[in-house]
């Protein structure tokens, strides 16, 4: 109908506003209200020691359940949140919820050693992150060393002052991991100056680890690099027994992936791991 009316000199939407643009605008409008409408929640994915099966930490992964759209995956709304600046509000919310959850698990008798939370590049645009991270840690009572922030290589390489902000975080006792390692371009010289504790091998290299010689070579190289730089290395996206065995054989004893657990709700994690960990005590 918009087209027919166009002849009369007006349109319902600008020609540049493609169907995709309309969809994006709608998503953006919904997204802006998602927190006040209580539509966001967190899932937590265990990180485990391969040889013992012990829980070494969890990663917080945000989920958006919209009444009309259903469950919207992070790959659809995180980039949008970054573009619109909403990521700052969302990121604060995620961090606070994640820290609170650690204290709740402590009180319920499950000691999760470490909470990993993802950070976007955009969250570095507002000056020192350490000040608001420090505020949240004080408010929630979580010890700084139990928090690990995950950033990708591009955050480190493309953010002005990244080194200074990361040093600030290090100074307050928060850990840092490089997420999706191997998919970006990090200068090893730069990496060496960073107070980073952990490299996360991207899941694209783990997927065909036992059949693709290139992926195998990359995974082994990252494990070796981590060793020589005294960093811990964790493999993402471990789905099979073979992958876990391969990693262990090559000196990587930390993993996260569907083989161990999908990301789950806080209570599910508690139910599954409270007894499992008690056995180890
Ligand atoms: P990521 O930080 O690399 O998180 C790992 C992703 O891999 C998660 O996807 C997780 O569900 C998925 N995954 C874990 N194990 C397996 C496996 O064995 N097989 C497969 N196929 N996938 C696995 P998810 O939750 O969809 O998140 C995607 C990305 O969205 C994250 O990648 C992260 O970059 C971003 N993200 C999620 N939550 C947040 C957040 O709170 N803040 C920010 N800034 N980004 C977030
Ligand atoms: Mg991550
Ligand atoms: Mg990753
Ligand atoms: Mg990622």
Report on this model:
This protein has an eight-stranded mixed β-barrel with strand order 1-2-4-5-6-7-8-9, surrounded by five helices. The model is unreliable at 1-9 (pLDDT under 50). It has twelve helices and nine strands. By secondary structure, it is α/β, with parallel strands linked by helices. The protein has helices at 2-6, 19-33, 74-84, 86-107, 129-140, 153-158, 162-171, 188-193, 203-207, 213-228, 241-249, 266-280, and strands at residues 40-49, 55-66, 70-72, 115-118, 147-152, 175-181, 198-201, 232-235, 254-255. Helix 8 (188-193) links the parallel strand 6 (175-181) and strand 7. It binds ligand C2E and magnesium ion (3 copies). One magnesium ion (MG) is lined by residues 179-180.
What labels describe this entry?
single chain, 281 residues, alpha/beta, eight-stranded mixed beta barrel, 9 strands, 47% helix, 19% strand, binds ligand C2E
SSE order and pairing:
Elements: H1 2-6, H2 19-33, E1 40-49, E2 55-66, E3 70-72, H3 74-84, H4 86-107, E4 115-118, H5 129-140, E5 147-152, H6 153-158, H7 162-171, E6 175-181, H8 188-193, E7 198-201, H9 203-207, H10 213-228, E8 232-235, H11 241-249, E9 254-255, H12 266-280
Parallel strand pairs: 2-4, 4-5, 5-6, 6-7, 7-8, 8-9
Antiparallel strand pairs: 1-2, 1-9, 2-3
Helix pairs in contact: 2-3, 3-4, 4-5, 5-7
Bound molecules: ligand C2E and magnesium ion (3 copies).
The site of ligand C2E has 23 residues, from strand 2, helix 3 and strand 6.
Count of β-strands: 9
Helix/strand/pairing class, anyone? alpha/beta
- Rounded Rg: 21 Å
Mean pLDDT: 91
Low-confidence stretches: 1-9
Unique ligands: ligand C2E, magnesium ion
Helical residues, percent: 40-55%
């Amino acid at each position: 109908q918009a087209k027919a009316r166009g002849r009369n000199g007006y349109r319902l939407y600008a020609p540049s506003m493609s169907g995709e643009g309309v969809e994006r605008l709608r998503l953006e409008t919904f997204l802006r209200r998602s927190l006040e409408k209580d539509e966001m929640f967190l899932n937590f994915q265990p990180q485990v020691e391969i040889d013992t099966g012990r829980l070494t930490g969890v990663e917080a992964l945000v989920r958006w359940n919209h009444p009309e759209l259903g469950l919207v995956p992070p790959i659809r709304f995180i980039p949008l949140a970054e573009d619109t600046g909403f990521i700052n509000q969302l990121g604060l919310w995620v961090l606070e919820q994640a820290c609170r959850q650690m204290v709740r698990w402590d009180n319920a008798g499950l000691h999760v050693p470490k909470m990993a939370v993802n950070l976007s590049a955009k969250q570095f645009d507002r000056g020192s992150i350490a000040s608001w991270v420090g505020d949240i840690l004080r408010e929630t009572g979580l010890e700084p060393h139990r928090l690990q922030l995950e950033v990708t290589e591009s955050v480190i390489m493309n953010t002005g002052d990244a080194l200074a902000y990361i040093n600030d975080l290090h100074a307050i006792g928060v850990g840092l991991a490089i997420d999706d390692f191997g998919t970006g371009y990090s200068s090893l010289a730069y990496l060496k100056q960073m107070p980073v504790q952990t490299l996360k091998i991207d899941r694209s290299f783990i997927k065909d680890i036992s059949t693709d010689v290139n992926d195998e070579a990359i995974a082994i190289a990252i494990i070796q690099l981590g060793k020589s730089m005294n960093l811990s290395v964790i493999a993402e996206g471990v789905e099979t027994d073979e992958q876990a065995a391969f990693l262990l054989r090559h000196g990587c004893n930390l993993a996260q992936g569907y083989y161990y657990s999908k990301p789950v709700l806080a209570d599910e994690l508690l139910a599954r791991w409270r007894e499992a960990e008690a056995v180890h005590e």
